[in-house]
Design goal:
Helix content: 40-55%
Number of domains: 2
Structural class: alpha+beta
Strand content: 5-15%
Radius of gyration: 25 Å
CATH class of the largest domain: Alpha Beta
CATH topology of the largest domain: D-Maltodextrin-Binding Protein, domain 2
Shape: globular
Number of helices: 19
């Protein structure tokens, strides 16, 4: 009888111990992102708040600047050691998930993620083969932002047409000086601007969505690169050769930007604040009208997710990972903590929270930019292959060849087509 009592006591103790261990069991998640210090600090603080609400979950933070982040993640994904939760870029989807299986299918966790907070059109952009590979944190478009002070000195109104933009170059040069330009374009900005111009004129995109190959005729590619040559020749933008003379610093850190020699940018509305913040006082940026071709039915906006949150396909803790993603995107504590460090949130719940706190204001350039973009005609959805890093570098090579006099527009356009289609075929395999 005594032995039986001891056995019951031992079983009871073991059971209590099991419940106790379960109560304090820790699930460890890894989360990665890129960004600047403001984003890093806000995200780390949000993760602290998540742990307070979920003491059974710890999150190991893996964060870097932009440079090198993709190569690091590529190595992790190839080795099946990717983080449980990742900040991802829209154009990475064809790289890592052509068949939709490169990331965890977040549709299977939709109740935990509250997908009803997000527009279906945005979720479609991060869905591959019916599988939701990421949830867009924010959306972004390249728009025109001009240095209000310098345009007033030039005595010009902001361009409403491409002809107005072309005419502004000579005025800046004559009234302000040889080193003053209405606009500065880094090569990826120039690529997007030329795409917009061509869509407005011809109502078709650079990349055919059915073949994932380049979509223009020989004459249209000549027109494409010819318009770039025209922008340089008419002193609207500096050549890539002139731009390269200022080194490899970020544009917003370059002296000609800070002192107003570069009079505007064609830039993501989600990142425009750092450009405005670096201008010499009292100079400031203003959102300008979007130039349109008469009769155009599509503005040709490059409108895409600014970043997304994805869950690793190899995660051992999908439920907990979904809980973390939902917290970062929808929870009022996280939303307040993160603010606009990843742009204006796409989540309806997050927007409502920031509006109630007075953070989302109509005069904020990012907020105003989103409102402008949503009011412009948008029918063609950019292919993620348009943002392929190798294709963008191929475009840079092409405009450098133009600026350094290494060939005619016709020959350079022909070479771009051949090189672009070769790499697109390889990327789409």
């Amino acid at each position: 009888m005594r032995m039986k009592k001891q056995l019951i006591t031992a079983i009871a103790a073991a059971t209590i111990g099991l419940f106790s261990a379960s109560a304090f069991a820790q699930v460890e998640l890894r989360m990665s992102w890129w960004g600047g210090n403001d984003r890093h600090q806000a995200t780390l603080k949000a993760l602290e708040e998540f742990h307070k609400q979920n003491p059974d979950i710890t999150v190991k933070a893996e964060y870097t600047g932009w440079d090198g982040h993709l190569s690091r993640l590529t190595t992790q994904i190839a080795g099946n050691t990717e983080p449980d939760v990742m900040q991802t870029n829209w154009n990475w989807m064809p790289i890592f998930s052509k068949d939709g299986n490169g990331f965890y299918d977040m549709n299977t966790l939709k109740s935990q993620l509250h997908l009803e907070n997000f527009p279906a059109s945005a979720l479609e952009m991060t869905t591959n083969k019916g599988k939701l590979n990421g949830i867009p944190i924010s959306m972004s478009s390249r728009l025109f932002f001009y240095n209000e002070t310098m345009w007033k000195k030039a005595g010009l109104e902001y361009p409403k047409t491409w002809e107005d933009l072309l005419a502004a170059g000579d005025v800046f040069k004559t009234k302000l000086g040889e080193q003053y330009y209405p606009l500065i374009l880094e090569h990826q900005d120039a690529f997007a601007l030329l795409r917009s111009y061509m869509i407005q004129k011809h109502n078709k995109d650079i990349i055919n969505p059915e073949t994932n190959l380049l979509n223009y005729t020989d004459d249209e590619w000549k027109e494409f690169f010819g318009f770039y040559q025209q922008l340089v020749a008419k002193h609207v933008i500096p050549s890539s050769k002139y731009y390269a003379s200022f080194g490899k610093a970020n544009l917003y850190e370059m002296k000609p930007w800070i002192n107003g020699e570069f009079g505007g940018v064609y830039m993501w509305d989600s990142t425009i604040s750092k450009y405005g913040d670096n201008l010499q006082q009292p100079m400031k940026l203003a959102l300008a009208p979007y130039p349109m071709v008469s009769g155009a039915t599509d503005a040709g906006l490059f409108y895409k997710p600014a970043q997304s949150f994805s869950i690793g396909r190899n995660t051992k803790h999908p439920e907990e990972a979904a809980k973390l993603v939902n917290f970062m995107m929808n929870d009022p504590v996280a939303v307040d903590t993160l603010g606009l460090t990843r742009g204006v949130p796409l989540s309806k719940a997050a927007k409502s929270e920031l509006e109630a706190k007075g953070i989302l204001k109509a005069d904020n350039l990012s907020v105003a930019g989103i409102a402008q973009a949503q009011g412009l005609p948008m029918k063609l959805v950019a292919s993620p292959y348009f943002d392929n890093p190798q294709l963008v570098v191929t475009f840079l090579d092409a405009i450098q060849s133009i600026d350094y006099g290494k060939g005619s527009v016709e020959s350079i356009a022909e070479e771009f087509q051949a090189s672009g289609n070769r790499l697109l075929k390889k990327a789409a395999k």
